[in-house]
Amino acid sequence: MRPFLAFLTLLLLALPLQAQESTPGRCALPGSLRFVDAPLPHLAKRLAGNTEIRILVLGSSSSLKHESGGLTRTYIAGLPEALESRFPGRRFVIDNRSLRTQSVQDMLRRIKAEVLPAQPDLVVWQTGNVEAARQTDINSFAIALTEGLQKLRGAGIDAILIAPQYRARLAPMVDAGAFDQHMGWIGDAEGVPVFPRYDMMQFWAENEVFDLQSKDQAKQMQEAGMLNGCLAQHLAEMIRRAVALPVQ
Q: Rounded CA gap, 6 and 188, in Å?
């Protein structure tokens, strides 16, 4: 990492998340929750000269447009509106290529075959939960993720990583936290923003901000939709900051 970027990273790491975010109410996060920002220089250039911005989403079940069982609003569904409120006059088009049970290796192959030819303005890459459930070797996960980011950067495409979900019921059995931690290290090393979804969801779960365990399925779906709406707002805010960061 270049010296200036390393300094900037450390500076941002020291800032509380609430100082960086303006999302109030149930979406609020504690000052103790911190993450590292990194610039999105290619997206910044596209925003300066284009009214339509194309975002390609590469992920697994939690990034699908529609979930079986009734949950139709994921964090991706609310992203265009959240971004358009922060970038007036711009239209954000989502090309969602997420597929169930996709591993990081599957996605790496698809980056070469599908993503690079599509030349999106930004790739939102969500991964980690499938690997955690399958107890994938974490070193092979890190290698594939790094290779994919380098291929995107080599093609002039910015990326933002989405950390795994935190699931309270599965946490004792599925160690998604280890993959979340490695994703943070890789993002830091590669100068790529990492959206700390795992930490956010863990905070909200532990503080019972959203009732995802309700026996009333309609209420549970409503609460899940509100949580995903908060994720969309925080992700849009992270992207807003990232395009404003200087590249040295």
A: 9
Residue 4 included in any domain: no
Name beta bridge partners: 55.
94, 122
Phi-psi sector, 101: left (phi>0), alpha (psi -120 to 50), beta: left
Structural domain harbouring 167: 33-243
Distance CA 212, CA 117 (A): 39
Contacts of 241 by beta carbon, 8 Å cutoff, 6+ apart: 20, 37
pLDDT digits (tens, 9 = 90+) for 161-181: 999 988 766 665 667 889 999
* Radius of gyration, CA atoms only, the chain: 17
pTM (predicted TM-score):
0.84
For the segment 101-127, the average pLDDT, to the nearest whole number, is: 96
Q: What's the structural domain count of the chain? A: 1
Alpha helices in the chain (DSSP H): 3-13, 17-20, 41-49, 79-86, 104-110, 116-118, 129-134, 138-154, 176-190, 197-206, 217-244
* Separation of CA 218 from chain center: 26
Residue 126 to residue 165: CA distance in whole angstroms: 9
Residue 226 has what pLDDT? 86
